Amino acid sequence: SEKEKRTVDVAAAQMLDKAQEIGFLTTFDRAKAQEPRCTFGNTGICCRICIQGPCRILPKKPGGNKGICGAADYTIVARNTVRYIAGGASAHSDHGRHIAETLLHVAEGKLKDYQVTDPDKLMRVAKKIGVETEGRSVDDITKDVANAALDEFGRMHEQDLTWITSNCIDSRLAVLHNTTIMPTNINLSIAQLLHQTHVGNDADPVNIIFGGLKTALCDYDGMALATDLSDILFGTGVPVVTEANLGAIKADKVNIAVHGHNPLLSQMVVKAAREMNDEAKAAGASGINIVGICCTGNEVLTREGVAIATNFATQELAILTGAMDAMVVDVQCIMPSLRSLAECYHTKIVTTMPIMKIPGSYHLAFDEHHAIDSAKEIIRLAIDAYKNRDAAKVSIPDVKSTVVAGFTLESLLNIFKKVNPDNPIRVLIDAIEAGEIKGVALFAGCNNLKGPHDYNHLTVAQELAKNDVFMVATGCAAQCFGKEGLLNGEGVQKYAGEGLKKLFARLNEKAGLTTELPLVFHMGSCVDNSRAQELVTLMAKEMGLDNAEVPYVATAPEAMSEKAIAIGSWNVALGNPVHVGVVPPIVGSTLVNDIVTKIAEDVFGGFFFWETDPVKAAGKMVEILEERNWKNRI
Ligand code: BF8
Ligand code: SF4
């Protein structure tokens, strides 16, 4: 049906009907309006790197088979591709830098509203990166850890990035050294990549791609340190039970969505809200209800059990419920369209960061020095807005699913520990060796309206479950699974194959949780893809293999952002096969396409493949896992 073509999310479909009724154009309409796409842009052979352009590759026209400067299709495609990576690495690493700076200021006693919440994680991270802990104060260790993180961004001596060297096994580090893609300075690599791809600079597609992979590793480094330091500041999540989808918005409460990526803000909003229920009651509501959209939602879900409202493509629809009083946003993946939609309602869009403002929305500069006060000010805006809510415009879809989340690597291993106290990771490997499961798959990334919303995520996961694949997820993929009932025990009963069910039965028996384990383990936000990488490295160590031999595969069924491209690229460099469910603007150069889908495997063991049909994609992922298992047995 037409609805299935838009989304598989029942709540979203209801809201899209409502949008149609009131004549509001959503991102779904705008996506349609962009069709048909320009083939040059769509396949990557449009160059706008200098303003002689845009140059397009017109193979049949004399003189048209290259850009004005003489750049061939492979140069143009390679340059365009790695510039996406530069954008993604900038976003992730700047997020990490912000956390590191905050942690340093905490240790220096400059910030009263933040503290080291998880000193055990601090000690583990300190040991991992070689910071002395014996007989030292928490503040001193914290300073050294924070400074080590900040040093990654600007060090001027040749020293490999610490969060890469301390998280990778030797065989992988050797691959990174041999291919000369080991970075020593995050900011430098990003800047150098922009230089490398300036007009009249590097024309060699292989060299450009290697520059891109070096920067993608900076993306990894920035997110790995962001995860570690966020855990230190806010705690390392443990299993929590909550709910997901627009039904988590409550008609009788002041509803505030935290949307964006940075937990420095959302954690404070959650904390402040707990102290302000009386103010909400004074305004006539029964309390305050915080819900999450996109990755900052995943952050506060993991650590505070905050419900998921929705994911990227359907963010506008949360406002269409008529019951969203404020949406507080920080950075990344926030649609500029939110403001005009909010104008049809009483909803306040509050931007908070100096690099992310939306014309016409309310800007409240978030100040870490007065974080709780800033958060309270935002919540008071929401309470004020609530007073203007028009009950006649409220229609909240009665759709939500139970979610069991909070699976940081630590909390996942704690469950494995109940089955194998001496060697928790062995639980997964035993299940693989016994043929119960075929391996592990990571779901990551976004929504992309080049296909129906959440359809690829859901279908790939159902197929892999049937084929006994153990699944972990981050980002908007994880939020889709929350909404669609894959983050709970019923998901196992409904979709898992017999082997996978056996493993779950063993785990559930020993886990000692009040609820059954979920079909897919929610590992957090997109920066928490570092947790999944730690998992595969742990498996490699235990199996005595290199990363590229572990039965592990990653998928971004609905990849969209530059960040997703960066994540996919470091996954390849670190040895992981990566499925992408949309055809990226790379296929305009057979050479570049072959490099990333074929030659990459010879060099890194990891490679990309594009498959828009989710059933076929899952089939190929299963084949990859089976092939790796087969090779490991001979
Ligand atoms: O960092 S998955 S749409 S929200 S980019 Fe954005 Fe993509 Fe969602 Fe999170 Ni990640
Ligand atoms: Fe055209 Fe070359 Fe300029 Fe690109 S860099 S726009 S191909 S002249």
Fill in the keyword field for this structure.
alpha/beta; Substrate Binding Domain Of Dnak, Chain:A, Domain 2; 4 domains; 6-stranded parallel β-sheet; 11% strand; binds FE(4)-NI(1)-S(5) CLUSTER with Oxygen
Any idea what the shape is? globular
* Cα-to-Cα separation, first versus last residue: 48 Å
The helix content is 40-55%
Radius of gyration: 24 Å
Largest sheet: 6 strands, parallel
How many helices? The count is 27
CATH class of the largest domain equals Alpha Beta
Query: Which structural class is indicated by helix and strand composition?
Result: alpha/beta
In CATH, the topology of the largest domain is named: Rossmann fold
CATH architecture of the largest domain: 3-Layer(aba) Sandwich
- Report the strand count: 16
Instruction: Give the bound compounds.
Output: FE(4)-NI(1)-S(5) CLUSTER with Oxygen, iron/sulfur cluster
Query: How many separate domains?
Result: 4
Mean pLDDT score, rounded? 97
Q: Beta-strand level of the residues, as a percent range?
A: 5-15%
Low-confidence stretches: none
How would you write the strand order of the largest sheet?
A: 6-5-4-7-8-9
Question: Mind explaining what this structure looks like?
Answer:
- This protein is an alpha/beta fold and 634 residues long.
- It folds into four domains: 11-56, no CATH class; 73-234, Substrate Binding Domain Of Dnak, Chain:A, Domain 2 (Up-down Bundle); 246-393, Rossmann fold; 401-633, 3-Layer(aba) Sandwich (Rossmann fold).
- 52% of the residues lie in helices and 11% in strands.
- The chain contains 27 helices and 16 strands.
- A six-stranded parallel β-sheet has the order 6-5-4-7-8-9. Strands 13-12-11-14-15-16 form a six-stranded parallel β-sheet, sandwiched between helices. A two-stranded antiparallel ribbon has the order 1-2.
- Strand 14, helix 25 (562-573) and strand 15 (577-580) form a beta-alpha-beta unit.
- Helix 10 packs antiparallel against helix 11 and helix 11 packs across helix 25.
- The protein is globular, with a radius of gyration of 24 Å.
- The relative contact order is 0.12.
- The model has no long low-confidence stretch (mean pLDDT 97).
- The structure holds FE(4)-NI(1)-S(5) CLUSTER with Oxygen (BF8) and iron/sulfur cluster.
- Iron/sulfur cluster binds at residues 47-50, 52-53, 55, 67-69, 71, 76, 199.
